[in-house]
Write a structure and sequence with these properties.
MEMO1 family, MEMO1_fam
């Protein structure tokens, strides 16, 4: 089977093996050695959410999730990401046999992808679209680095990967994929990477919520709804008493916190509702939703207290927006013990 080329190497991240290795080491070294009273990696933290922008933007944030990720028992790694290159309904599987990185190739778990394909619930990613897609690729070098730290330099000992694109879906459709994939999460030999950036703010994203007249309004709402307040009324505290009210970057933070708080509840429906209410442009909302549905399905079969829920450990923005002409993308990292 063909190898998917590392099409974003040399542009979105370093293409030189030694330079890239040093960069990832630097990102990871900047993360504390303990989080939430646990040494890193967090024992049993087999699931993470991490961003997928160019490493100069999101690499330091992604390192928080990757340093928490426990790969010690991993025999296969699922990578779930959104599609940026074509419209996708439901989920799609790779047709490639390997994923290239500047370090070497990671092998695709053909047995698992074939098993999933046989359910009839998955489409295949068009090869050219998959090569152009960055949401999966941006995690492969980070994963290689952590596998190397876990298993040593012999890549033949690295577990294979299962890349899956997760497209549009209703709440019920996400839950259905959650039930379908839940048996794989029950296997302690699986690790999961969920690829997502958070709020994309700016005219280029047709999403510019701001504070005005006591609420959150969107510059880019349809003309007929130009002054409609979004279905969110946060407590702004002292920020609301400033002459112009909360700055735009504070609005962005509130919207992202609403999404992150909903994710941390572990209730799939809570997150789905927040996205519907706020219209937050979380590009990986469907991969996150499917992952939450997977964990929710598993938790119904019984999980220890505190397991099966994400904990966010880092939040950053590419720019602190103050003007309507600005733009920014938010990044967040989280882990879940299962």
């Amino acid at each position: 089977m063909a190898t998917r080329e590392a099409s974003h190497a040399g542009s979105w991240y370093e293409g030189d093996e030694e330079v890239l290795s040093s960069q990832l080491d630097e990102f990871i070294s900047q993360v504390p050695d303990t989080l939430n009273n646990s040494s890193l990696p967090v024992p049993g933290a087999r699931v993470i959410i991490a961003p997928h922008a160019g490493y100069s933007y999101s690499g330091p944030c992604a390192a928080w999730a990757y340093k928490a990720l426990d790969l010690s028992a991993a025999k296969r790694v699922f990578v779930l990401g959104p599609s940026h290159t074509y419209y996708l309904r439901g989920c799609a599987l790779t047709t490639f046999g390997k994923y290239e990185t500047p370090f070497g190739d990671l092998v695709v778990d053909k047995a698992t992808t074939d098993e999933l394909r046989q359910t009839g619930n998955f489409s295949d990613m068009p090869a050219r679209r998959e090569v152009d897609e960055h949401s999966l690729e941006m995690h492969i070098p980070f994963l290689w680095k952590r596998l190397e730290q876990t298993f040593g330099n012999d890549s033949s000992k690295f577990p294979p990967i299962i890349p899956i694109l997760v497209g549009d879906g209703t709440e019920e459709e996400e839950k259905a994929f959650g039930k379908l994939l839940a048996p794989y999460l029950k296997d302690p030999g699986t690790a999961w990477i969920v690829s997502s950036d958070f709020c994309h703010w700016g005219s280029r994203f047709t999403y510019r919520p701001h504070y005005a007249d006591g609420g959150i309004r969107d510059f880019d709402a349809p003309r007929s709804k130009k002054h409609e307040i979004l279905n969110v009324e946060p407590d702004w505290g002292e920020l609301a008493n400033t002459p112009e009210g909360p700055a735009i970057h504070e609005v962005i933070k509130v919207l992202d916190e609403l999404a992150m708080d909903a994710i941390q509840t572990g209730v799939h429906g809570e997150f789905y509702k927040v996205i519907q209410d706020t219209h937050n442009t979380v590009c990986g909302r469907h991969p996150i939703g499917v992952m939450m549905a997977i964990m929710e399905a598993v938790s119904q079969g019984g999980l220890e207290e505190g397991k099966g829920k994400f904990k966010f450990v880092q939040y950053q923005r590419s720019n602190l927006v103050k003007r309507a002409s600005d733009f920014s993308v938010s990044y967040a990292s989280a882990y879940a013990v299962v």
